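Morning F.,

Quick status update on the modeling queue. The single chain you submitted on Monday has been processed. Sequence for confirmation:
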Amino acid sequence: MGAWGAGPLDNDAAGDLLFELEQARVEDLPDLLRSKFECVIGVQGELDSWETDQALAGAALVAYCLAAQRGHPLELDEDLEPIRLEVTEELRHQAEQTIRRALMPEDNEWYDLWTQSNKIDEAEAELKPYLRILSVSGS
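Structure tokens below.
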């Protein structure tokens, strides 16, 4: 799985996404994230684990930036700190839907892998703080 923890940033796919986002122009970040979210919320058939890991890392970034925008920053995460993003309502909603879909077991390789490793509860717990932030629309 290429993971060293159950958090959305604790895997190789997340690292690849964050590197890609760091290299991108600021104005391209929303479209890059939307394309990652669509790999989860717009997919027909089974969710791919790698794509889900990348989308969840993107959702964590959106939650991190949104919390900061609202004046309630999360603990500093050195992986997310270099990436600045203005979170729109659309992006917030897509990030929230991404996490919600990832937590559904149907047609979901990501969920199956965590279940097989007996750590799905830990993976779900790691996503809950981000989901709480994303679930509240508006400021």
